[in-house]
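Next up, a specimen:

>
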Amino acid sequence: MGILETMRVSLSALTAQRVRMDVTASNLANVDTTRTPQGGPYLRRQVVFATEQPSPFARLVQTRTGLIETNPRVARGVQVAGIVVDRRAVREVYDPTHPDADANGIVRYPDIDVVSEMTNLMAATRAYEANVTVLDALKAMAMRALSIGRA
């Protein structure tokens, strides 16, 4: 795998982890939101990752059983496959004085676990930092390779 392919994989991971951090931050910011424009409480969201489709550097060969990839070890990046809304993540609290209480005095809050969201945020941050480190190492390798030609 070349430097540019490694860089592309790492950049796709940076983008995916940034989306994950944004969604987690949104979950944390809305932990007490009982009213949204769609109606009802804020619903927890979660990012789903998937492997990118085969790299343009992968070669596909037609066989009797179908297409096969001749080099399955070719690096692939990551992509955000979607953002899933958890419709069941609602907790009910009895508070008849709350403006969003129903006729029975029940208020629906998002069921968001702050500790698990913070853990998710820390994991995304560490993954982001690891990919920045990879890009820094690639940059240093490229600069060393260019300096070889000058000597």
User: Anything to note?
Assistant: The beta strands are 45-51, 60-63, 66-69, 78-85, 90-94, 106-110. The two ends are 26 Å apart (CA to CA). Helices lie at 3-29, 114-150. The CA atoms of residues 45 and 85 lie 5 Å apart.
